[in-house]
C-alpha cells in the first residue's frame, strides 16, 4: 500500500483536516467540529497547526492516526513510524507523536462555515524499542527517547524583538570566539540525550525554538553546517539548558555534570556547572574546576615559545574566561 497513491487510499477532507489512509472511520460532533477520527495507515495527514496564522503541518504514519475531541481539547495521535513536519523546515520522527490543541471560543462575527478556532499547546513524541525520537531543525539535530514541547503562538504582524535574534560578534584571535559561528544562521547543534524539553514559537509559517532543555546523558556537538567535519566545540554533561538572557538576544548555555566537560581545538574545561554566553563570548563557572590548553607564549614575559606547551589551570572558586588571557 502506497500512501502517496490516491487509488489505494480513502480521501477525506473536513475544514482544515485532510487525511489519506487505507481505512477510515469518522464521527462528527457538528458541521464545524470532529468528534472522532481513526485512520489505518500507511497514511498522510495535512492541516494547519494554527489556522489563524496558516502555520502548515504535514504528517505520515504506518500504524494508526486518531483525532479525539476531549471537551476543551482536540488531541491528534499517530503511532508507528510517525513523522510530523512543522512549518517550512522542522521535522520530528518517532514511534508515537501527540499534538494537543486547545479549542477556543468563537469570535464575534465568525461564520459557521469558518474553521473551528484552535490553538496548539503541546507536542509529545516518544521512542519505540527500535525507533528513537529524532528532531530535525535548522539549528538542531537531536536523537532522544522523549520530546516534550510547549507551543507559543506569536501574531505575524508582531515585529521581531531582541528575543528572537541572536547577536553573535566574536572577537578575533579569541579561543572562546571559536565556539561561535561566524555565520549564526549556519550554526547547528548535534545532540543525543535521554529527553528534550523545549518551547516552540510559531509565527506564521515559521517555527522557532525559544528555549531548550537537554536532560540525561547529554552529548552536544556544535558545528557550522558548511563545515560539518570541523566541530566548533563538544560538550558532555548530565543536562544542558539554553536560555535567552533577560530578553536581550544573548543566549546563555548552562551545563551541569560530574563534571560538565567542554572541549574545543583550543582548550578543555571541566567543572560541575559551566555557563557560556554565546553573545559576549564569555565562559564562566562558580565551582571548582580545571582548564587545560596549549600555549605559544611565555605567560610571564609574553615572548613566543619555540614549541607549543601544555598548560593546566586549577581553581576552587569562581573562574571567568574571555579568551584574552
Describe the structure.
This protein is mainly β. The protein contains no helices and 23 strands. An eight-stranded mixed β-barrel has the order 9-10-13-15-16-14-12-11. Strand 7 (64-70) and strand 8 form a beta hairpin. Mean pLDDT is 81; it is low at 162-173 and 180-185.
Strand content: over 45%
Give the neighbour order of strands across the main sheet. 9-10-13-15-16-14-12-11
Distance between the termini: 64 Å
- How would you characterize the largest beta sheet? 8 strands, mixed, barrel
Helix content: under 10%
Average pLDDT score: 81
SSE pattern: EEEEEEEEEEEEEEEEEEEEEEE
Report the uncertain regions.
162-173, 180-185
C-alpha Rg (nearest Å):
24 Å
The total of helices stands at: 0
Structural class estimated from helices and strands: mainly beta
**General form:** elongated
Q: Tally of extended strands?
A: 23
Helix/strand layout:
Elements lengths: L9 E5 L2 E5 L1 E8 L2 E8 L2 E8 L4 E7 L2 E7 L2 E14 L3 E14 L14 E9 L6 E5 L2 E5 L1 E8 L33 E6 L2 E9 L2 E19 L8 E12 L6 E13 L3 E11 L4 E4 L3 E9 L6 E12 L3 E3 L4
Parallel strand pairs: 12-14, 13-15
Antiparallel strand pairs: 1-2, 2-5, 3-4, 4-7, 5-6, 6-8, 7-8, 8-9, 9-10, 9-11, 10-13, 11-12, 14-16, 15-16, 16-17, 17-18, 18-19, 19-20, 19-21, 20-23, 21-22
Could you give a short description of this structure?
This protein is an all-beta fold.
Amino acid at each position: 500500500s502506497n500512501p502517496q497513491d490516491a487509488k489505494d487510499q480513502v480521501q477525506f477532507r473536513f475544514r482544515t483536516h485532510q487525511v489519506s489512509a487505507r481505512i477510515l472511520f469518522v464521527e462528527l460532533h457538528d458541521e464545524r467540529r470532529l468528534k472522532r477520527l481513526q485512520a489505518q495507515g500507511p497514511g498522510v495527514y495535512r492541516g494547519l497547526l494554527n489556522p489563524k496564522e496558516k502555520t502548515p503541518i504535514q504528517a505520515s504514519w504506518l500504524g494508526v492516526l486518531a483525532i479525539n475531541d476531549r471537551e476543551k481539547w482536540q488531541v491528534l495521535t499517530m503511532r508507528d513510524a510517525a513523522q510530523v513536519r512543522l512549518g517550512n523546515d522542522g521535522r520530528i520522527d518517532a514511534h508515537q507523536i501527540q499534538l494537543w490543541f486547545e479549542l477556543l471560543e468563537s469570535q464575534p462575527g465568525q461564520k459557521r462555515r469558518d474553521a473551528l478556532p484552535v490553538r496548539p499547546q503541546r507536542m509529545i513524541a516518544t521512542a519505540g524499542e527500535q525507533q528513537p525520537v529524532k528532531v530535525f531543525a535548522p539549528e538542531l539535530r537531536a536523537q532522544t527517547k522523549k520530546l516534550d514541547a510547549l507551543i507559543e503562538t506569536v501574531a505575524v504582524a508582531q515585529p521581531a524583538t531582541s528575543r528572537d535574534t541572536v547577536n553573535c560578534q566574536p572577537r578575533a584571535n579569541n579561543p572562546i570566539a571559536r565556539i561561535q559561528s561566524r555565520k549564526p544562521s549556519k550554526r547547528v547543534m548535534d545532540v543525543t540525550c535521554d529527553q528534550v524539553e523545549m518551547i516552540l514559537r510559531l509565527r506564521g509559517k515559521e517555527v522557532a525554538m525559544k528555549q531548550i532543555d537537554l536532560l540525561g546523558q547529554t552529548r552536544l556537538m556544535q558545528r557550522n553546517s558548511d563545515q560539518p567535519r570541523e566541530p566548533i566545540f563538544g560538550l558532555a554533561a548530565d543536562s544542558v539548558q539554553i536560555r535567552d538572557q533577560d530578553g536581550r538576544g544573548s543566549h546563555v548555555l548552562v551545563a551541569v555534570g560530574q563534571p560538565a566537560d567542554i572541549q574545543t581545538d583550543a582548550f578543555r574545561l571541566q567543572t560541575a556547572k559551566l555557563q557560556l554566553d554565546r553573545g559576549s563570548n564569555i565562559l564562566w563557572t562558580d565551582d571548582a574546576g580545571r582548564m587545560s590548553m596549549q600555549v605559544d607564549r611565555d605567560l610571564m614575559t609574553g615572548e613566543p615559545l619555540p614549541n607549543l606547551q601544555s598548560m593546566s589551570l586549577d581553581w576552587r572558586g569562581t573562574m571567568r574566561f574571555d579568551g584574552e588571557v
